[in-house]
Amino acid sequence: MTNTCDVCTYRSYLFDNLNKTEFGLLTLSRKEMFFRKGEIICREGEKINNFYYLKEGLLKVYKTVDARKEQIISISNPLDFIGLLSVFSNFNYIFSVSALENSSICIIELDALKKLIQSNGEFAMTLLEKMSKMNDQILETRLLINLKNLRGRTAYIILMFAKDIYKSKKFDLPVSRKEIAELIDMRTENVIRILSELRNDGIIKIEGKSIEIIDQKRLESISEFG
Amino acid sequence: MTNTCDVCTYRSYLFDNLNKTEFGLLTLSRKEMFFRKGEIICREGEKINNFYYLKEGLLKVYKTVDARKEQIISISNPLDFIGLLSVFSNFNYIFSVSALENSSICIIELDALKKLIQSNGEFAMTLLEKMSKMNDQILETRLLINLKNLRGRTAYIILMFAKDIYKSKKFDLPVSRKEIAELIDMRTENVIRILSELRNDGIIKIEGKSIEIIDQKRLESISEFG
DNA sequence: CGCGGCTTTGATGTTCATCAAGTAAAGTGG
DNA sequence: CCACTTTACTTGATGAACATCAAAGCCGCG
Hints:
Radius of gyration of chain A: 19 Å
Shape of chain A: elongated
Number of domains of chain A: 2
Oligomer: homodimer
Largest sheet of chain A: 5 strands, antiparallel
Helix content of chain A: 40-55%
Distance between the termini of chain A: 55 Å
């Protein structure tokens, strides 16, 4: 008898080193939860009891700066969001996570996972690698964005959505202008202004949430040198 | 017969879960190297063969932006620098590391360490925790610095040296003004300007590399709200 | 239908990067 | 060890990039 976990992408991506018994144990404690667009998965400061991974959907990881302002750390699609920064290093979340699109999230009790890490070193190694890679990537991206001027950041983030997330030159933005600003350290007004500029220059088409890249070469050049 | 590793801080900090045999094996493959102030420990792009930890001294982790400019990611003292970001997630270093002060670094072959991770899950868990914590802290610090204006950043970095590194209100800067700028995303001229301002306001004394905090309350307030 | 949040554009102000120029310190080669 | 070169440090003046303020239209939602 097979369960749905056996055919999940994560089976080979993350749990390849678990034997049948171990994997069975894990899937027993596993719960799958559905989050509607906008719903919050976990909040900064809450106690960490579970290990999450994103099966389907799109999430944002963020910190609350003050009542009016958030800082978005990263946007993650499946395989880019496993566990969470801080799951193994803190007792409480240091970031919040919410759903940008309807999402399916798998939840494993942290204690069960820790036991597996301790009993299966190969699995521990895989997890260590994946989480390190995730961490590195987030840090590198933040550093990269910081080097760019506002035009460069805007171009960069459009390309990120097109290439990494939607794999298409045409897509609907899953975030507001304000959220884009919070993601790339800008003010909302400037995001809007620069999007308009890029449209007037014939580099992108934009209408509400819908974006289409017209001149990818130029957009990439702006992203790189801006 | 004891070796020096038995009395090293890292024995309990990182290697507590290794038994005598395992620890013995590790220390056999261990080499200790001495780096003089200014020397480079490893370079961005080089193949990763070793796992490093800082026994004594002070390091900077940085990326080269272009021939004239570096970006400093973090400054680490012992126990804050174990392994390196990217050791487990990449084949090649994504950052460089050099010594800000004369430093002793212990070097373990990465393969030997990986074998231990795979055979000893408790050790794996400890390593995962420590490295995650290091990663989280670096990311949080970068985010925090970015929220501050130049005055706030300068105050923050002075307090970091005083509280985290030298544990004293009076200390000698281990870095140049240019390096401070590279660490907190500023221009050298502005670092100098603001240090002078803080001196003129009677908040710090500064003479060459020597800094003394006079009014810590005010400095902390500048760091927090700046 | 009215309120609040999102979007947009224009005008204004501030912060910070850049340029320039000079002094001091430190490293380099004869 | 001294002349020479380079690098670090410092201050002032200027301009560009970006934040802030203001106002108005839009949309969704109670």
